Structures are given as structure tokens and as C-alpha cells.
């Protein structure tokens, strides 16, 4: 029972260390003490060494920090939305990219890119991703549920259908797009944080923070939901309201992740699963730990993506899918084994 | 915004034994074109254990679901003296606990965590202090304490059924609605369940249990309600209701009823033409 708080502290500590490391590594290497020193100087404290490299301070504040911050926000949003989604679907295989919500949100964001819409300024892309993500979540939820629960087969088949439609729409958009938009969509189709800047961070961070806080407020009721909808209702949960809140939350968190980073799959699947293995399925630990864990995974993955090959950048979404895909396969086999068939 | 309530839920006040806990009048439930329950009337009082019996498809589970507020119905249902629809989910959860058939849990919560979920309605009320005692007591009564730390999905069917019952008992409500609480259980645990139910009734609770074993109903219930074809065929003390004539008609099977040599309670046996 005490493993939950320990896990939270450990993940929080790991995240801080990773952020300092990730900010320092790159074409211009800046040692961790200088990274910390630069932050302290900006905060008005005259302590620690300043970055020694030429343009070191600028590299940190214009390129690295927003990128690390966007990785934290995106990873946390993905981990959190995976945990909430699995809770409300009552199914550990639910994940925003697997069942198509990420791709639905992607269609919305791509539309904005291709047609150059700027109705809501910076928020246009997020709003479009949110709208399409919400519609997709509602659709998947309505189609894949019967008698209060979601069967694995129905969920995955719904995911295939939704993904097919969404990728067709994305293909259509790419067909209609000019060269610049095409490049933007492609890099973002594969998932990338290369476009990170402070504006992007300032746009999605508040959304992710609000989403995470509301998700945490739903934690106890999500626990009760695992007893089934009827029993949860008998225990005093307003199931309809919880379901509505959760669906809006999933769309909000997924679209805030997708809007600038593109589709990064499997983080929302792997992270909550590992957390459950360590600290059990209780959502009061699962939700914050999945958010922290998602952030850790994404900061680390992005660090690898941009440093593994010199002067080249691996697409982040490709990297997470390479690692997450086999894990999903293993989980699928386990689910089949556990229920004695494709229940 | 989320989790804040407009008004504080009313916590239940203690009620004297013999007052009406649940009252059903003129209840009618339809599923599609089929009438599942028709003109059912039933009064459950505090301090009594009522067994609900009847053949498959008679509408027993539907009656419990209607009282639980899970299915749309016409007619009057009152809980603790107020119409069902006027209570909030949270207020109902403080007044009645419901055990459904084949209870499942979708994530590997431990037995202790599952039983603890029964305390959810009391979170934020003074009765929250009783959480630990209620959980420990319920686990002891249902004989599940020894696997408190095991994940629920790994238990056998009978063990899961007892854990689910413990969760219902931990809710500590004035009314218990149990749908086949003994279905997956061995003989010892079947008796144990009804001992607990009677204990609760003696302490002032009202209990309704759907049972298929007429022997259990006859031995343990204060009153028995017989449902057949969506209507209430009879309701009263076991000795009055469980007669060979009524049961043979309801179950469409030749049934013998003989008094128990020691207790005098009815023993119900299908008439068999086997050897000897």
C-alpha cells in the first residue's frame, strides 16, 4: 500500500534529473551544473556557473527548455489520458492512439494546417484537435460498448475502423496540401517535438494541467466504476456525469498532446500498465503516476530521438511505436490468456 | 465543479424495527413488447429477512433492479418512506446496498480494496470513522480475511461471490438487496451467508435475497415471496406459503413438502421416481 507515494516521489525525482540532462544534451553540450546555473540566474539568483559554451544560454532558453517542457506536458497528458480512458472503458487495452482518438484529433489539427486557419490564433489548432478528438471519443465509446462493458475485440475493431477513416481523411488532406503544409503534416504524423516553442507550451500546458486536476478529482469514482456501471451507481456514483466528464477529459488531454507534437502512440498504454504493476490499480495513485511516468518516458525518448544519430532526428512517434508495439502485442496475448479467449 | 455537490446528502436516521424500509405498489416493468413484471406489490420491513423465490424468468432479478432504480418501471416504489426518484444516487447508497449476480471487477484490485469500495457512500460523513471496522467486520463475516491482499480477479467464483457480499455488508445500509448471494457457494458458506443476513435483520436491517434453493428460503427467511410469470403468486411466512400445491403449480413440477422433524420448518423435495 505504501508503494504508491514512493513511486510518485521516485518518478518526480527522475523527471527533474532527466529534464536537466535532456536540456544539456545536444549539438552544443551544456553540463548539468551550468543548466541549473542558467535557470538560477534567470530566476534572479546569482548562484551556479553560467553556460560556458557560446550561445549556450540562448540554446537553452530558445530551443532546449521549450522542447523539454513540451515533452513533459505532452507525456503527462498522454499518460493521464491513457489511465482515464482505461478506467472509463473498464479495459486495460484502451489507448488514445490504438482506438483512434489521437488520429481523430490529428485530422482536426491537419485541417487547420492545410487550410491555414487562424480564427482563434494559437488556439485554433488545439480547438480543432479537441473538437475532432471529442467526436471520435464519443463515437468509439458509443460503438464499442454493450451492456455496460467493452469487449476487447469490439474495442480493437472499432479502433481499426476509426483509424482507417482518419488516415483516409489525413491522406486526402495531404493530397490537397501545398508543399509546406505537406512537410508539416508528415513530420507531425510521425510524432515530433521539433516544432516546440514557448507559445506551444503556453497553449497546451494550462489545458493539460486543468485536465490532470479534474482527472485526479474523478479518481475515486473511477475506482468504483471498475465494479461495473450498475454497482458504481448503487454506491452513489452519478455514472452518466462521470462518463461525460471522462470523455471530455480524454479528448482534452489527447488533443493537447496531439496539437503540437503529433501522434505519439503507446505511451498512454505502456505507462499506466507499468504503474499498475508496481502500485496497483487505484486511480488516486495511477493518474498522477501515469502523468509523471508519461513525462519521464517522453523526455527520455525525445532525448534519444534527437541525439541517437548525429545531425539527424528520429521521429519520436516512430520510436515510441517501436518500443510500444511489441509491448502491446504481449499485453494482447496476456489479455487473451487471462480471459480464456477473446473476451 | 466536479465532485462538489449542490446540497449535502441526507444521512439516514435510525428507524424502529418493523417500519417500512421498501414498499412496492402496482409495479410494472416492460422490456420491449414483453411485460416482465405486472402489478407486483411488496412491503419489506426493517428487522425481517425476505426470500424472493420463483422459477427462471419469473422476474426476480428485475424486481431487485427496479427497487435499485436500474430499470424503468411504472407504479410506486418508496425507499425509507420517500419515492425512489426523489433520492439522489448518494442518498440511496446510504440506505440500500445491492449485490448483483456474477460480480466482476475490471482491474486487479485487492480483496481489501474491493471491500473498502463499499464504504464510498460514507466518504466525507462522520460515519467515515467506521470504515476500518466495517471492512474488517464484513471480511470476517464472509470468511475472506485470509485473502485480503490477493487480487480479486485471481479468486475462484465462490471466493469472488463472498468478497462481493463483504463489499455490500461493509456499506452498512439499512436495506440489503441480494441477488442470488448463495449461487456459487458451497453448503457451509451458503449457511454462513444466511446466518449473516439473519444477524443483520435481527440488528434492524431489512434484507431481500433472491434464492433458488427453496430449502434455504424455508429455513432462514421470515417471509417468502413467490414470483411466477411476472406476478406475485404468494407472500408470507414460509410455513404458509411454501405448500406442495402452490409450488407444484408455480414450478410445474410435482413437489412434496414435509415438516422438518425437529424444527417443523417445511422441507421441499421434488417427487422423484428413482430406485428405492
Care to describe what's here?
Chain A: It is a multi-pass membrane protein. Chain A: This is Iron ABC transporter permease. The complex is a heterodimer of chains A (343) and B (276). In chain A, helix 1 (3-24) runs antiparallel to helix 3, helix 3 runs parallel beside helix 8 and helix 3 (56-89) crosses helix 12 (267-279). In chain A, strand 1 (145-146) and strand 2 (149-150) form a beta hairpin. In chain A, 75% of the residues lie in helices and 1% in strands. Chain A is mostly helical and 343 residues long. The model of chain A has no long low-confidence stretch (mean pLDDT 88). In chain A, 53% of the residues are buried. Chain A has one domain (3-338): ABC transporter involved in vitamin B12 uptake, BtuC, CATH 1.10.3470.10. The radius of gyration of chain A is 20 Å and the shape is globular. Chain B has two domains: 20-95 and 173-270, Rossmann fold, CATH 3.40.50.300; 104-172, no CATH class. With 276 residues, chain B is α/β, with parallel strands linked by helices. The chains are: A mainly alpha (343), B alpha/beta (276). Chains A and B meet through helix 9 and helix 10 of A and helix 2, strand 6 and helix 3 of B.
Layout of helices and strands:
The complex is a heterodimer of chains A (343) and B (276).
Chain A: H1 3-24, H2 32-42, H3 56-89, H4 101-115, H5 123-144, E1 145-146, E2 149-150, H6 152-176, H7 179-189, H8 198-217, H9 219-225, H10 229-234, H11 239-261, H12 267-279, H13 283-307, H14 316-339
Antiparallel strand pairs in A: 1-2
Chain B: E1 20-31, E2 34-45, E3 49-53, H1 60-68, E4 74-79, E5 82-83, H2 89-93, E6 96-99, H3 111-117, H4 131-141, H5 157-170, E7 175-179, H6 187-202, E8 206-210, H7 214-220, E9 223-228, E10 231-236, H8 238-241, H9 244-251, E11 255-259, E12 266-270
Parallel strand pairs in B: 3-8, 3-9, 6-7, 7-8
Antiparallel strand pairs in B: 1-2, 1-4, 4-5, 9-10, 11-12
Helix pairs in contact in B: 3-5, 4-5
Amino acid at each position: 500500500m505504501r508503494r504508491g507515494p514512493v513511486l510518485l516521489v521516485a518518478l518526480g525525482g527522475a523527471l527533474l534529473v532527466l529534464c536537466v540532462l535532456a536540456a544539456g544534451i545536444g549539438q552544443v553540450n551544456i553540463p548539468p551544473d551550468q543548466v541549473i546555473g542558467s535557470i538560477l540566474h534567470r530566476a534572479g539568483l546569482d548562484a551556479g556557473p553560467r553556460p560556458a559554451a557560446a550561445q549556450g544560454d540562448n540554446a537553452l532558453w530558445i530551443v532546449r527548455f521549450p522542447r523539454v517542457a513540451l515533452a513533459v506536458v505532452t507525456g503527462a497528458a498522454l499518460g493521464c489520458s491513457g489511465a482515464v480512458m482505461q478506467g472509463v472503458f473498464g479495459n486495460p487495452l484502451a489507448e488514445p492512439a490504438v482506438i483512434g482518438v489521437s488520429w481523430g484529433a490529428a485530422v482536426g489539427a491537419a485541417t487547420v494546417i492545410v487550410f491555414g486557419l487562424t480564427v482563434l490564433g494559437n488556439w485554433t489548432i488545439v480547438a480543432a484537435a479537441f473538437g475532432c478528438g471529442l467526436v471520435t471519443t464519443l463515437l468509439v465509446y458509443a460503438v464499442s460498448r454493450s451492456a455496460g462493458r467493452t469487449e476487447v475485440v469490439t474495442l480493437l475493431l472499432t479502433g481499426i475502423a476509426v483509424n482507417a477513416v482518419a488516415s483516409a481523411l489525413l491522406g486526402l488532406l495531404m493530397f490537397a496540401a501545398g508543399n509546406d503544409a505537406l512537410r508539416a503534416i508528415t513530420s507531425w504524423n510521425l510524432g515530433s517535438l521539433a516544432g516546440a516553442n514557448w507559445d506551444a507550451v503556453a497553449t497546451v500546458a494550462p489545458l493539460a494541467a486543468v485536465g490532470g486536476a479534474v482527472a485526479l478529482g474523478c479518481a475515486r469514482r473511477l475506482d468504483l466504476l471498475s465494479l461495473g456501471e450498475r454497482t458504481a451507481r448503487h454506491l452513489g456514483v452519478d455514472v452518466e456525469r462521470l462518463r461525460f466528464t471522462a470523455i471530455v477529459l480524454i479528448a482534452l488531454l489527447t488533443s493537447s498532446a496531439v496539437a503540437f507534437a503529433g501522434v505519439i502512440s503507446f505511451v498512454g498504454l505502456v505507462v499506466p500498465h507499468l504503474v499498475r504493476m508496481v502500485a496497483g490499480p487505484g486511480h488516486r495513485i495511477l493518474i498522477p503516476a501515469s502523468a509523471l511516468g508519461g513525462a519521464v518516458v517522453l523526455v527520455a525518448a525525445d532525448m534519444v530521438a534527437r541525439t541517437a544519430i548525429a545531425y539527424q532526428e528520429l521521429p519520436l512517434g516512430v520510436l515510441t511505436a517501436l518500443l510500444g508495439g511489441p509491448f502491446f502485442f504481449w499485453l494482447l496475448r496476456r489479455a487473451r490468456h487471462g480471459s480464456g479467449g477473446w473476451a | 465543479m466536479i465532485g462538489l455537490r449542490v446540497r449535502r446528502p441526507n444521512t439516514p436516521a435510525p428507524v424502529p424495527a418493523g417500519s417500512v424500509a421498501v414498499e412496492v405498489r402496482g409495479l410494472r416493468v416492460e422490456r420491449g413488447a414483453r411485460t416482465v413484471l405486472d402489478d407486483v406489490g411488496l412491503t419489506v420491513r426493517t428487522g425481517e429477512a425476505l426470500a424472493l423465490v420463483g422459477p427462471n424468468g419469473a422476474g426476480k432479478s428485475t424486481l431487485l433492479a427496479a427497487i435499485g432504480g436500474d430499470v424503468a418501471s411504472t407504479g410506486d416504489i418508496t425507499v425509507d418512506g420517500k419515492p425512489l426518484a426523489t433520492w439522489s444516487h448518494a442518498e440511496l447508497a446510504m440506505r440500500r446496498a445491492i449485490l448483483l449476480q456474477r460480480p466482476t471487477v475490471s482491474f486487479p484490485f485487492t480483496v481489501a480494496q474491493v471491500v473498502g469500495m463499499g464504504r464510498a457512500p460514507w466518504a466525507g460523513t462522520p460515519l467515515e470513522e467506521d470504515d476500518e471496522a466495517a471492512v474488517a467486520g464484513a471480511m470476517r463475516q464472509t470468511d475472506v480475511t485470509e485473502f485480503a491482499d490477493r487480487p480479486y480477479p485471481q479468486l475462484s467464483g465462490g471466493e469472488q461471490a463472498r468478497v462481493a457480499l463483504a463489499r455490500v455488508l461493509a456499506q452498512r445500509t439499512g436495506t440489503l438487496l441480494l441477488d442470488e448471494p448463495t449461487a456459487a457457494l458451497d453448503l457451509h458458506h451458503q449457511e454462513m451467508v444466511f446466518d449473516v443476513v439473519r444477524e443483520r435483520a435481527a440488528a434492524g436491517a431489512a434484507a431481500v435475497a433472491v434464492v433458488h434453493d427453496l430449502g434455504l428460503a424455508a429455513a432462514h427467511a421470515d417471509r417468502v415471496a413467490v414470483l411466477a410469470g411476472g406476478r406475485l403468486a404468494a407472500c408470507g411466512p414460509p410455513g404458509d406459503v411454501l405448500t406442495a400445491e402452490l409450488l407444484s403449480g408455480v414450478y410445474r413440477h410435482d413437489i412434496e413438502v414435509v415438516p422438518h422433524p425437529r424444527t417443523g420448518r417445511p422441507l421441499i423435495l421434488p417427487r422423484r421416481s428413482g430406485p428405492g
